[in-house]
Amino acid sequence: MATVKPLQPSDAGFLKKLRAIAQDSARVVLTDHAKKRMRQRRIGLRQVIECLRRGRIVEPAHLTIHGDWKATLEHQYAGDKVKVAVAIEKQEDGELAVVVTVMD
Questions:
Q1: Rounded to the nearest 10 degrees, what angle do helices 45-54 and 32-41 cross at?
Q2: At what angle are helices 11-22 and 45-54 packed, to 10 degrees?
Q3: 11-103 in CATH: which number?
Q4: 26-75 pLDDT, tens per residue?
Q5: Of 41, 72, 92, 102, which has the fewest Cβ atoms less than 10 A away?
Q6: DSSP 1
Q7: Could you tell me the pTM of the whole model?
């Protein structure tokens, strides 16, 4: 019997889904680690949201051990280059964008 492998999304497919999720900022969740890094690096929530909405992928979309899709995006906003590691997590009521960490 053959094993079933989950489909690998393209970076373009990941971005399309992420941008749709990020249009509703209530569906963007920041981990405690991401909040800590934002404070340390003086990166604002608006910069993170804009990175999710307009950034380009610098680490390709891949499946995590938790079954979520994750990628790292980069975007220049307000004069700062911001990188955001984000996972798309399925919930019963839809999908969330979970910001794992924030880098500059």
A1: 110
A2: 140
A3: 3.30.2310.40
A4: 999 999 999 999 999 999 999 999 999 999 999 999 998 888 999 999 99
A5: 92
A6: -
A7: 0.88
